[in-house]
């Protein structure tokens, strides 16, 4: 049995009533002007509501506008039309309550691991004392198992370690929404599994809203509460939202033994296939 | 573009040679460079032997310069100083002019890199004055200062400006948008972004500019001192030529070359200390 809802049902709000409206994306449109004067519409009417402690995955084919959507929520990019509201307030510019884990890590290469995290803490937690800041940095270094590499420079780290620094930096400033753009995309399967577990552990103990872009259906099923599946660009929108009913904490091995897991997995893969062939 | 023999290449390769002690590396770091130097010495010797009225042989030059080499810091009268003192006098002018140049060029480069209006306003000035030989500024400098020493420093100042301005502007304008996005998400105010993100991110470019500026400044000071006279390695070279003392000219050239090499090496060490990143050898 697959629970899924169409975009239409979502936007009517019938099923949304009992879900807290923490982050609300409404009729979001993003278009770029083309050289010939017309507009290239990337996102065409995206509607999504996310709860305060909900883990959402966004999945869709390359180039459909997932990163664009995330950047608009982060405030790094502006929507052409529509609105994004966090706790009822319109998002117009970047803010540290919506922290991003960047696709290409974006660590500052002239700072050590510790200094990278410290920079974020210094900028955001103005009221913390020096001792508190030091302990926050150490706590997050430990959280992602990077104490041993704390005084290394990003050049000296592996891809997985860099990504953990990015995650530690994002978590250290205690954002209300964590935005992750393919956080595990560039990692080998073994490292990816470990890091997914670490992030889930952290999220399960300090729940918050998460939006994670991924290309991996298994990852989305393992980690998130709902999977937002986007149609192909141009003019992409949300095609379908898949509920993932498994309770947290989850275990990958146990999930793989559930028939429901495969139902959901096939459903998602079929969706992606369908939209891929439409494109041709 | 010629490849400059560079101390940092030798130093880096040298460290590896000690660690691994491979014969191949010793060949690369000691044998081949030594072979090159011996080759040039042999050619010099050959020419000097064939046309002895033209120049001294290396051995003759060595003997003639022995006094300078053994006593670089003698003082035998108001104008009669050891070659060490002359070198220090030239270095003082270069470092003064270069530092003043850097003090002006880095902020101007920042301005150009950050503001399109500033770029449009200042770019024509750079494009016009950059191709001008620094020596062309000497008459103006002499007219302003009426003294040799400040004029030389002024010419070095002008010389040092352009590469640093251009490279700083390039560095500032090419700071990765990713770094800026990190700062924006953290709600870092613009003025702090300049010091905490843009400056450190563009430091490698700034140092490239500084190293080119310092290299050219060292080239130019010799020529300036030839024209202005006074105490300095450039005037020494010219003066010895006028006394038909070619041995000392050879010595001066060698000293100037080695000093330039050391200056660049020192800059690259400072760069790697400041930027925490290993510095690619300069091939200017
Ligand atoms: N500045 C821009 N001007 C014009 N088009 C742009 C611009 N930035 C992005 N686009 C277009 O927007 C579309 C969506 O880009 P986006 O990076 O959001 O895709 P994505 O879904 O994240 O893809 P991927 O999975 O490969 O990361 C792409 O087709 C891209 O060509
Ligand atoms: Mg993307």
Report on this model:
The complex is a heterodimer of chains A (280) and B (284). Chain A has helices at residues 7-12, 66-74, 113-124, 130-143, 159-172, 189-205, 217-223, 252-256, 259-279, and strands spanning 4-6, 23-33, 39-50, 55-59, 81-86, 89-90, 98-101, 177-181, 209-214, 226-230, 238-243. By secondary structure, chain A is α/β, with parallel strands linked by helices. Chain A has a single domain, classed as P-loop containing nucleotide triphosphate hydrolases (Rossmann fold). In chain A, strands 1-11-10-4-9-8-7 form a 7-stranded mixed beta sheet, with helices on both faces. Chain B is mainly α. Chain B folds into 2 domains: 2-55, no CATH class; 83-275, Orthogonal Bundle (MetI-like fold), CATH 1.10.3720.10. Helices cover 79% and strands 0% of the residues of chain B. Chain B is built from 11 helices and no strands. The longest helix of chain B has 39 residues, at 190-228. Chain A binds chain B through residues 74-76, 93-96, 98-100, 102, 104, 106, 108-111, 119-120, 123-124, 153, 155, 173, and chain B through 176, 178-179, 181-188, 192, 196-197, 200-201, 203, 275-277. The structure holds adenosine-5'-triphosphate and magnesium ion. Magnesium ion (MG) is lined by residues 66-67, 103, 181 of chain A. The site of magnesium ion has 4 residues of chain A, from helix 2.
């Amino acid at each position: 049995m697959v629970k899924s809802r169409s975009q239409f049902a979502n936007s009517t709000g019938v099923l949304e009533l009992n879900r807290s409206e923490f982050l609300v994306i409404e009729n979001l449109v993003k278009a770029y002007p083309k050289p010939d004067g017309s507009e290239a519409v990337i996102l065409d009417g995206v509607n999504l509501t996310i709860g305060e402690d909900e883990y959402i995955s966004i999945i869709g084919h390359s180039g459909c506008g997932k990163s664009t959507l995330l950047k608009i929520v982060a405030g790094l990019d502006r929507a052409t039309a529509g609105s994004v509201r966090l706790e009822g307030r319109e998002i117009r510019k970047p803010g540290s309550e919506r922290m991003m884990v960047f696709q290409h890590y974006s660590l500052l290469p002239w700072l050590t691991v510790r200094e990278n995290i410290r920079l974020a803490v210094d900028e955001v937690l103005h009221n913390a004392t020096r001792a508190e800041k030091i302990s926050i940095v150490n706590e997050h270094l430990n959280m992602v198992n990077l104490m041993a590499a704390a005084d290394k420079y990003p050049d000296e780290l592996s891809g997985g370690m860099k990504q953990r620094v990015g995650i530690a930096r994002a978590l250290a400033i205690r954002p209300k929404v964590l935005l992750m753009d393919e956080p595990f995309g560039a990692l080998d399967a073994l490292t990816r599994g470990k890091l997914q577990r670490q992030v889930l552990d952290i999220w399960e103990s300090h729940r918050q809203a998460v939006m994670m872009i991924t290309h991996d259906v298994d990852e989305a099923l393992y980690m998130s509460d709902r999977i937002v599946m986007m149609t192909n660009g141009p003019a992409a929108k949300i095609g379908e939202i898949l509920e993932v009913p498994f309770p947290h904490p989850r275990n990958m091995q146990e999930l793989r033994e559930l028939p429901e897991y495969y139902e959901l997995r096939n459903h998602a893969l079929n969706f992606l296939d369908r939209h891929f062939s439409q494109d041709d | 573009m010629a490849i400059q023999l560079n101390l940092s290449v030798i130093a880096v390769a040298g460290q590896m040679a000690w660690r691994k002690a491979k014969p191949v590396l010793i060949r690369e770091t000691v044998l081949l460079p030594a072979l090159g130097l011996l080759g040039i010495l042999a050619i010099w010797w050959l020419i000097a032997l064939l046309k002895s009225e033209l120049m001294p042989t290396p051995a003759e030059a060595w003997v003639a310069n022995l006094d300078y080499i053994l006593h670089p810091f003698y003082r035998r009268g108001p104008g009669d100083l050891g070659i060490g003192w002359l070198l220090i006098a030239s270095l003082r002018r270069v470092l003064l002019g270069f530092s003043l140049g850097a003090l002006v060029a880095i902020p101007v480069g920042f301005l150009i890199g950050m503001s399109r209006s500033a770029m449009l306003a200042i770019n024509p000035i750079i494009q016009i004055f950059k191709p001008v030989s620094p020596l062309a500024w000497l008459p103006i400098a002499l007219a302003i200062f009426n003294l040799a020493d400040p004029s030389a420093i002024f010419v070095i100042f002008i010389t040092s400006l352009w590469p640093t301005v251009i490279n700083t502007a390039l560095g500032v304008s090419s700071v990765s948008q990713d770094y800026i996005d990190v700062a924006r998400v953290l709600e870092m105010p613009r003025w702090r972004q300049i010091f905490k993100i843009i400056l450190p991110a563009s430091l490698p470019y700034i140092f490239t500019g500084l190293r080119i500026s310092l290299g050219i400044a060292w080239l130019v000071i010799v020529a300036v001192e030839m024209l202005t006279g006074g105490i300095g390695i450039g005037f020494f070279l010219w003066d010895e030529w006028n006394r038909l003392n070619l041995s000392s000219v050879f010595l001066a050239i060698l000293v100037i070359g080695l000093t330039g090499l050391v200056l660049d090496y020192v800059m690259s060490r400072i760069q790697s200390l400041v930027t925490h990143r290993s510095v690619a050898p300069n091939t200017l």
